[in-house]
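Hi Prof. W.,

I finally got the N-acetylglutamate synthase-like GNAT family acetyltransferase prediction working! I wasn't sure whether to trim anything, so I left the full sequence exactly as given:
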Amino acid sequence: MNEVTLRDPKPGDFGWIIHRQAKLYAEEFGLNAEFEGLLADICGNFIKMFDPRREWAWVAEIDGQVVGSVFLMRGDELAQGKLRLLYVEPATRGSGVGSNLVTACMDCARAMGYEKLVLWTESSLSAAAASSAAVHECLCGDPRRAGKLCTRR
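And this is what came out:
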């Protein structure tokens, strides 16, 4: 597999993120149009209320093809961020795409001054659930410091 490139979102990417996640998770987990609405709300709010001092998003590509994405969004508290909409195409899962996305998100969260990062995921979404360990290790550097990461499922 070729090198993963992370870039900022551009026009059309947000629609793709909504479409791809809604379609795939309907097939894999039976999620319905309500989930698609949730995705649309998250993306819409990100676009409308974007604050580059507190938020960012990344799109992963391999050979010019979009293969994943992740969002860093403001949390409910000043020192808390949210890792949202982590997604990796099935054909590239296990290849480091998700790890690259999570690392970029964690590095940015630290640079923006976040002390905690909340990962919300559907319990059946194995890739996102597995990422919670990577998120914790990346943010804290020490898996025993569980207080630095809140994981909600």
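The two ends are 31 Å apart (CA to CA). Does that look reasonable to you?

Thanks,
D.
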